[in-house]
């Protein structure tokens, strides 16, 4: 009775869409109070997921969405890194 494995779903903080975890980008506030992009989705800390779409990331930057979800100011360079990686197709 080996069943099909369930795909973990997560909600994008901007679009509120439930998507497979691998299709989203995770940004984490670590226990050391650092904000990092988590490519492995395994770092400890409070995480927030966002769609790998340039418009969605720009909207999150405009509305300061990560700061609300992570309960900490998010540096500008985090948004720049996200945009760079999406543009290069890394994510």
Automatic annotation (TrEMBL):
Provenance organism: Evansella alkalicola
Record domain YlxR: where: 10-82
Matches recorded under NCBIfam families: RNA_bind_RnpM
Matches recorded under InterPro entries: YlxR, YlxR-like_sf, YlxR_dom
One Pfam family recorded for the sequence: YlxR
Entry superkingdom: Bacteria
Protein name: YlxR family protein
PANTHER family assigned: BLL0784 PROTEIN, YLXR DOMAIN-CONTAINING PROTEIN
